[in-house]
Design a protein that fits this description.
alpha/beta; Rossmann fold; 9-stranded mixed beta sheet; 7-stranded mixed beta sheet; 32% strand; elongated
């Protein structure tokens, strides 16, 4: 966690400690409230949430998460402050359908199964959006929604900035004149839209939440975005592959938890794989690359080759052989500097962007997957695809 975000967590921890000492608890919510009481839409903005996996980002006291759980959603409330988590756990831990987690939001999103809905009441501006949004976009299932409120103009009348930088804002301890500084990303709607769309999300609406009191300039914005149904893909770089690396194998490791993918240092999610060594079969290459890159061991005899994919990148004809592995031993782990964050992803919630050859391999294996990629000619070795 960057220093500025660590300082924010420590400030909110001091705030939570102060409230624990005071022993004052707010009543449960009987209706939805954003940052400005009575302003903005209520629960109707979420639609029917019964049965959905929902994440409350920066859940604080847990009141919103508890109200969402009461509607039948399966809610996880995440907050990085230990004392805020302690306050929430004391009042909400027995709430059916609610789980409370004390963790950094980005770390949680990287490890958790993707959510149908993610919302945040004022929590997002305390985390650098350039760090949060990549994890958040892949933390949503395709078609999933994100709703969050963010400060637009503070009570002193200071408006948002167009640049993605944090600025100090005052956090006053209730019942005292003591003030703490927190750092917030108070961004103009155009800046938020550029960040959201740049990380693969579609901005659907922006609503204004103004303070009703005369002379109070505080104003918030409520953003609603959605992850597209289809998963995008892209090359790692604009350069074509070198001719000596234009023949390779992509290893589809599929099990009960989904498909194994790793995050490349250039930002694409991809299958294990690589080029065969001289004298090596594609099945042997698949087994070797899987062990070298992800630490999983499989027998070449358990590798099923699907066929040959042909596409053209510039003047280079690329040949990729998709290989499927259902039996292996070991736990995914980082073995090379270029690939990190190996994990299994559900087929209905694959991350993006995928590396183009990986997307092509997955589409050859299961043509029903909602993947966007440059066209490739596939020549199957038999009529069997996914299975």
């Amino acid at each position: 966690m960057p220093d500025i975000e660590t300082e924010n967590r420590d400030t909110w921890t001091a705030y939570g400690r102060h409230q624990l000492t005071r022993g004052i608890e707010l009543p449960e919510l009987d209706r939805w409230a954003w940052d400005v009481p009575g302003a903005g839409p209520g629960l109707e903005v979420f639609g029917d949430v019964k049965g959905l996996r929902v994440l409350d980002l920066g859940s604080g006291l847990g009141r919103h998460a508890a109200l969402m759980a009461a509607l039948g959603a399966r809610v996880t409330g995440v907050d990085s402050s230990p004392t805020q988590h302690q306050r929430a756990a004391a009042r909400c831990s027995a709430t059916p359908g609610l789980r409370l987690v004390c963790a950094d939001a980005v770390s949680h999103l990287r490890d958790a199964e993707p959510y149908d809905l993610i919302y945040s009441v004022s929590g997002m501006p305390f985390t650098d959006p350039r760090r949060l949004l990549p994890a958040l976009a892949n933390g949503l299932k395709p078609g999933g929604r994100l709703l969050f409120s963010a400060l637009h103009t503070d009570s002193r009348g200071v408006g948002p900035t167009a640049t993605v930088t944090a600025r100090p804002e005052v956090l006053r301890l209730p019942g005292t004149e003591r003030e703490h500084l927190v750092h917030m990303w108070v961004l103009a709607p155009a800046a938020w839209e550029a960040l959201l769309t740049g990380h693969g999300l579609v901005l659907e609406s922006v609503a204004t939440l103004d303070a009703p009191q005369p002379g109070n300039a505080a104003s918030y914005r409520l953003y609603a975005a959605r992850r597209p149904e289809r998963v995008p893909s892209r090359p790692r770089t604009s350069a074509p592959p070198p001719p000596n690396a234009a023949v390779g194998v992509g290893v589809i490791v599929h099990g009960p938890e989904g498909v194994l993918l790793g995050l490349h240092r250039r930002g694409t999610w991809e299958l294990a794989g690589g080029k065969p060594e001289p004298g090596e079969t594609f099945a042997e290459a698949a087994a070797r690359e899987l062990a070298e890159e992800a630490g999983l061991v499989t027998d070449p005899g358990d590798v099923r080759l699907l066929g040959t994919l042909l596409d053209r990148v510039g003047d280079v004809v690329r040949v990729t052989v998709p290989a499927v592995v259902h039996r292996w031993s070991g736990t995914p782990q980082q073995r090379e500097e270029t690939i990190r964050a190996w994990r299994f992803w559900p087929l209905d919630a694959l991350p993006g962007p995928l590396f183009v050859p990986s997307a092509q391999c997955l589409a050859a294996w299961d043509p029903a997957l909602p993947l966007d990629h440059p066209p490739a000619s596939f020549h199957p070795y038999d009529s069997t695809r996914r299975g």
